[in-house]
Amino acid sequence: MDWECCWDRDVIALGDCPNIQEGDEDLLLSRRRRILEKCCDCANFKRDLERFRESNHPLAPVFSLVHDDHQRQKNQIQSLVSFLDNKTLEVRFLNELGSVLQSSVDLEEVLSVALTAITAGKGFGMNRAFLLLSDWDHAVLKGHLAIGPRNYEEACQAWDEIASNDMDLQTLAQSFRQYKLSSERDKFHDILEQLTVPLSDEDHILIKALDGKHPVLIEDAFHHPDAGMGLAHLLGVDTFLLMPLHSRNRRIGIIIADNCITHRRITEEDMHSLETFAFPVAFAIERASLYDRLQVELSRVIEAGNKLQEQQELIVRMEKMALVGRITSSIAHSIRNPLMVIGGFARSMLKTTAPSDPKREFIESIVSEASQLEGVLDEILNYSDSLYPTRDFWDVNQMLESVLKDLQDTLPQKGCECSFTPDTGLAHAYMDIKQVSYCVRTLIISGFDCRNREQIRIQVFGQGDTILVSIMNTGCTVTQTEIDALPTPFAITHELNTGIGLALCRTMLEKQGIPLAITVPPEGGITYMITLPTRKEEQS
């Protein structure tokens, strides 16, 4: 019998078998491989087998059974290979997904990876996904994020973009988070706003699915007895999957997935795959949420610790100031009466002494020094007054002009020039005008013993809810070490000498919650900056 197929020949040429193409030349010399790989599917072989069956040979039925069983097993093997390839890809995908979810504590990153995995072709291949999270503060299940197209044109554009950029899952998620997270949230804002359900509403399909802990496939949603028309119309699809997210019996949220564009049927295998995916996602979301809460609490603890440290430092500083105040007050009261007697007798003698009397100059000197000592005693005794400021709203311009008017005779005598331009557009400041006036006066005259000619510039301007008063003395040259020592009572500097005036100013202003900044400008001199509040709420 002449056979059409080449199965009966040990060696054939390249053109003898229509199923052997370039690259399969090794089959030309292997009859066994050629029969198993090519001949069984060859049309010529099937015709030869049919002719063999018609010949009524006793082995013809056996060959037919063997051939049919071989084809069946071959198809099964190919199906298993395809199944194993798909499972291998799925395992690799889940491994990649799990490694990202396990290593991330950033909630936005976790959500981006999760939703990208649901909608990516390399993942579960759904068209859209909506994520609803449990808000325990308000006891609701609330729409948080969504991803996917809203129409066919947008879907085609997204698919073309993904096809042109061969990216893995993590890269896709990073790209989504960086470039599309905000736009996707805005795009589905109208739907997410309406996806809010009280956690106590046990009759709602979303709460039922959340409590059921298993995926629920809703088909024919427009006529489904539990789904309700509202949810189906809101999503715009009649088939969708509800995937609850649970972690250690905590209801984390729920994912709604659908195929609104392709209308591909959601299979049982899709549901099982997503169910396997749901647990690590829920755990990662819970961990990232707890991490965010931990960071918030940590920030509060750090802030509270810093405030506690500031309060402790303030208490120590105030204790030191109180000790200095008690000592100086005791000394001041001890010498006040003798000083008043000396000053009083000197002033009486000065009234009865003739201008030509050579002793008059000495008496005037006694009166002047006694007045100066009385001023120092007034500063010392003002420590107790600084503890109880009386605040109200006052005009800063008038306060500064009043201080400069009191110093109009003293400034020229000390060789000092002072400039001040009022700002008429300022609001009133909330302050103890007596204490702030004393502080401004003290800051102006604090460097009068300098050897250089003084140039003092006073500026005032508004900044938000505050008024800044700047006092710049260009005649003094001080170091940062001396600046740091200025607020300490009786601190000694080369330029500003010694005293308690600046320390008293710092105490007075701190009691009112008014900052006092002392800086050394690059061009030289010294600058005092007082920040006055214009609202009561600004006070400590």
Structure, explained:
With 540 residues, the chain is α+β, with helices and mostly antiparallel strands. The protein folds into three domains: 25-87, no CATH class; 90-294, 2-Layer Sandwich (Beta-Lactamase); 390-538, Heat Shock Protein 90. The chain contains 16 helices and 13 strands. The protein has helices spanning 31-37, 43-54, 60-103, 107-119, 152-164, 169-187, 189-194, 205-212, 228-235, 268-352, 360-385, 396-406, 410-413, 433-445, 480-485, 501-511; strands at residues 128-135, 140-147, 196-198, 216-218, 240-247, 250-258, 392-394, 416-420, 429-431, 454-463, 466-473, 516-519, 526-533. The strands form three sheets. Strands 3-2-1-6-5-4 form a six-stranded antiparallel beta sheet, sandwiched between helices. Strands 8-10-11-13-12 form a five-stranded mixed beta sheet. The longest helix is centred in the middle third of the chain and has 85 residues, at 268-352. The termini are far apart. 25% of the residues are buried. The model is unreliable at 490-499 (pLDDT under 50).
Output the radius of gyration: 46 Å
Whole-number total of structural domains: 3
Low-confidence stretches: 490-499
Helicity range: 40-55%
What order do the SSEs take from the amino end to the carboxyl end, as H and E? Answer: HHHHEEHHHEHEHEEHHEHHEEHEEHHEE
What top-tier CATH class of the largest domain fits best? Alpha Beta
How would you sum up the major sheet? Answer: 6 strands, antiparallel
The name of the CATH superfamily of the largest domain reads GAF domain
Number of strands: 13
- Morphology: rod-shaped
N- to C-terminal distance? 112 Å
What would you call the structural class? alpha+beta
CATH architecture assignment of the largest domain: 2-Layer Sandwich
- What oligomeric arrangement do these chains adopt? single chain
Approximately how much beta-strand content do the residues carry? 5-15%
On the 0-100 scale, what is the average pLDDT? 80
CATH topology of the largest domain: Beta-Lactamase
- Largest sheet, spatial ordering of strands: 3-2-1-6-5-4
Number of helices: 16
